[in-house]
Amino acid sequence: MAAVELLPSVIDPDEAIADRRARLQLVGDRVAPMALARERTLPLLDELISLFPEGLRRGSTVSVAGSGSTALALAVAAAASTAGSWVAVVGDPDLGLAAAEEAGVALQRMLVVDPEPSSWSAAVAALVGAVDIVLVAPRHRVRDAEARRLSGRLRERGSVLVCTNGRWPSGADVQLEVVESKWSGLGCGHGVLQSRRVTVNGGGRGASARPRSADMLLPGPLGRPEFVHVEAPALATQG
Amino acid sequence: MVVPVRTLVAWCPDWPVVATGVPLDELVAVVHANQIVASSPSAREQGVVRGLRRRVAQARCADLQLHERDEAREARTFEPVIGTLDNITPRIEVIRPGTCAVITRGPSRYFGGDEKVAGLIREAMGTVLNGRTEVRIGVADGSFAAELAARAAQPTRLIPQGEVAEFLAPMRVAVLERPELADVLVRLGIDTLGAFAALPATDVLARFGSDGLAAHRLASGLDERPPDARHPPVDWSVSAEIDPPALQVDRVAFVARSLADEFHQRLGRAGVTCVRVAIEAETEFGEEFVRLWRHEGTLSDAAVADRVRWQLDGWLNGSAVTRPSGGISRVSLMPDELIAAKGRQLGFWGGETEVDERAARVAARLQGQLGADAVRVVERRGGRHFSERLMLVPAATVELRGRTLFDDSEQPPWPGGLPTPSPTRVVAAPRPVEVLDKAGEPVQVDGRGLLSSPPTELRNNRTRVEVAAWAGPWPIDERWWDAETHRRQARFQIVTSDGVARMLTLEGGQWWVTAVWD
User: Fold this and answer.
1) Which of chain B's residues have a Cβ under 8 Å away from the Cβ of A194?
2) Does this complex have an ipTM over 0.85?
3) Looking at the domain that runs over B238-340, which CATH code has it been given?
4) Contact B269, B310 (CB under 8 A)
5) Which residues in chain A touch residue B427, judged by CB atoms under 8 angstroms apart?
6) Which long-range CB contacts under 8 A does A182-185 form with residues at least 24 apart?
7) pLDDT band at A239, cuts 50/70/90?
8) Where does the pLDDT of residue A63 fall: very low under 50, low under 70, confident under 90, or very high at 90 and above?
9) pTM above the 0.90 mark?
10) Which fold has domain B171-227?
11) Could you say which of B395, B418, B493 has the minimum Cβ distance to residue A186?
């Protein structure tokens, strides 16, 4: 700041003020109390950014579907979890913990909750607001009213709900679907599973309604999602 | 200066061990979150002391029996012991299972002196305990000094009125149970309560804040806080009717949970909390049961709900004489002695952060609602199977605040483990499946790990899918030295034509789907 004041002739004063405003805004965002949580977003992996036009907005619902939805849901939670958020997994005891860790979910900040179907809704409602990301895999049909009630609570408390098996009633804020997937690394009697190339289509409501699509390795060879590296065409070596 | 109210504390040593039902002369210890919380005298002689890690304790004493801590059991077994005191005084306060406090003013006047009362209480508790452990009794001004007197008792210790400060003076500052404060004091060269009490109170307040001042008051033989003459202007108690009357603890516990929530909200709105909470139950035939529990603003909703559950458990499963004759029809919580709520200070750097605190709170709350096993967290173990490397343990057994997992990324991989990526679903109850070759015959693996023919089709009773790619077998031969637990398996990775990758395991001629890469 002092440097700016010493060099008034070099820097346009309007620009300097705008710069200060921007910096102040940045500091303000960083120290903003929880009440403003819904105005903010949670971090996302670079590979997924193109699928979330608004970013991973607090208070939103995300529904993932298709073959590979579990890996995609873990990838959605990964960056926020690494950054310090807690993740709760509700009603999904089969979730592969090793896969979650490889995807980037911090297991020390993960709660695994197995409620009876009758108390499913109450358990999810209790977790909303207490943890930043709630991964749900409802085994029953979630009623519209139930979903609406939870959505309202999400908006109020600023958590993100990710439905990992596509059983969320219509109207999730962000809807992702794995439409194409192809494994590589495995042959006939040899090799080992290495990576899966998927195409994810996105839709949703509001600003997220714009159709979009992304290709990625989900999982990549190390378990976390990766960009697809387009191989350069081989150079002609003759001549 | 107001002298603290004269209090008698009865302490049953090693209560968590006694509650397990194992005689104290055996080598026993009770663990919680991988740490020893209590041990029997004989185990202590071998060096098994509080705060030790489970492994270290087992290394010091190979024959040690370990029991998981069960506070509900501790409270349940303690209830009959204090239940016998109801004939001596109606006002018994449970500080924690194994320790209770009694205000001696009334009973002493009636029975003729503190010594008489102490004798009566010892006799009554001794009869119920029946030699399982001893009872130590301390009488002093204020429950802090009385508890220390009980710990120093052989077997009864009465500190005469007005001599509390002298009794406390030679004690170490660690007995204040404020580790951070004690640490600083020792480094300042103040290692006894007497030396701490000699500091001017105003300077202590300036340097250590209100909590330091409270500790200073204790060290000086005063009450932790000046008595508050405020009388509850309104009735703060909350109660709930239970209809139809309940004989099972679970049903009442469910009500207790919301009751505790309401209780704290009402107190919180007025900015107060209470020293003790009275838990009262009424049966359908009009019997009333009351017990006081120590609170001091430190108990969360879940902790109060727990105490209600323990207390009801103690009443409903107690001896036939004291057991309620009917179902519980009403439960109430009443605050006793209101004090200003200061809230709990959260750490700034390190220590507890707010996100951890919130997660820990919701975990505790859900455990109260869904049962302790329904809320779990991840612990790292070793093993070849996906289900072995990382395990889920009940959240109650682990400290969630500021948690770290043992980092094994530096460790060499487990021999026989599969490379990344790991499957996203590990099927807890594997599904049987048929694996067929081109001729429609089941695929088998012989004793040398050779495949009978390449798999081409997966089939279960409903569907059939074609195999697109496969690899294996990766054999596992575990615990071959033990006929009972010996496992011999062959694992395969199979991608089917629909693009799904599965892990199949062949064991004893039967194929199972054990994991899926979803």
Assistant:
1) 421
2) no
3) 3.30.1490.100
4) no
5) 94
6) A182/B499, A183/B469, A183/B495, A183/B499, A183/B501, A183/B517, A185/A221
7) very low
8) very high
9) no
10) DNA polymerase; domain 1 (1.10.150)
11) B493
